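QA checklist item 7 of 12: single-chain prediction sanity check.
[x] sequence parsed
[x] length recorded as 469
[x] structure emitted
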Amino acid sequence: MSKKLLFCLAWVLGATLGTGRTQAQVLTMRQAVQNALNNYGTIRAKANYVKASQANVREAKREYLPDINFGIQQDYGTVASAYGPSAPSKVASVSSSGPVFPTQNWNAAFGALYLTNVNWDFFQFGKARERTMVAQRVLNRDLSDLDQERFQQGIRVSAAYLQLVATQKLVISQQRNLARADTFLTVVTARVRSGLNPGVDSSLAKAEVSSARIALTNAIEAEQEQANALAQLMQVAAPDSNNFTLDSIFVSRIPASLAKAPAQPLTEHPLLKFFQDRVNVSDEQAKYLKTFQYPSFSLFGIGQDRGSGFSYNYGPANPNAFTQNYLKGTGFGAANYLVGVGVTWNLTTPIRVHQQIVAQKYTSEGLKEEYGLISQELQAQTILAESRIKNALANYREAPIQVKAASDAYLQKETLYRNGLATIVDVTTAAFVLNQAETQLDVIDTNVWQALLFKAAGTGDFGLFINEF
């Protein structure tokens, strides 16, 4: 009985002092998930994409507003002119106009133009509305993209948390295994010194201790790697010991929501909603392209005033009828206004746009195929999740029986060895079986929760898992 008590004390010390976790702050599952949702770079990036799409929606709604232009121009130059045809064709030219002189002259004065122009495409066969709808669909897509990224990040962090719990339990199991090997080495050494057993037993016992130390080192390394992975997912620095103190009490119970149905249909899965919104964007873009096949009706109005340093009677008969006074040349002189209704229709646009519409429709069909593929994969994952839960529960019930049997076998072999009725090979074999059973128990405990997480990932209901904490 005293040796069993020593065993328990060694295990407790190994689980507390050996890992140095008693003074650290406990990181819960909910805290780990929330840290990731707050800090992870991809989520923060997609949140900014949503803000950009929101701004695009506001801009699209204002696109229907009329164009209002106001301009002021003041010049100094000549007004010599000549009869002849002219049209602007990708070249810069001046708009000077004046009487025709028989010879070139360089009389120059100031001039000014004050202009207000209003143009409003008041009817475009739904072009402005469809442009706004496209922007809104893009916003919906980016919102669902953010939601599915948050959902998947929650799944990834939860899986990493469970794996770290398992590796930490494996470290404790290997510490127990090393404590057993050390204790048994003491027994073997004493019996060898007293001549009750051959010296080779001592060598075999030392080899078992070394093997246990290597297994413990490997378990610690796996724990450190998993802690680093969790830290990266949470976008936080790992503790100085490269480990976290986790709340692992939950693995000792079976989740209450294992048999619960998801709170939403599969079509509400965040990933499926994202793929559906991609289809919606493409369909809306096709509708928007169709509006370019039709004309645009416009209202326009122009108000204009001009000033000039040349007098009304300036010409060959009176070449000095101008002034170079700045204020007189740039003042208001002649005002005009104009209002009207116009229609603009490029008759070749429907021919060009038709193929764009066809291409967009094929894009929509491709996106629908991707949606169908993801839907099938999620349905298969949901079915597989139920099988994983069933198998995990079966193993969960069997694992303690295996550990109990292996522990009894080891105790029996060790007792027989102490009394000279068993060989060291019998004891080491029993120790190996016990260590294997304990490590399997550590993994099986978390496998039940991993199966529940797998179900939550397949059904899209993360609450099935996270509401257990």
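[x] summary fact logged: The longest strand covers residues 108-123.
[ ] second reviewer sign-off
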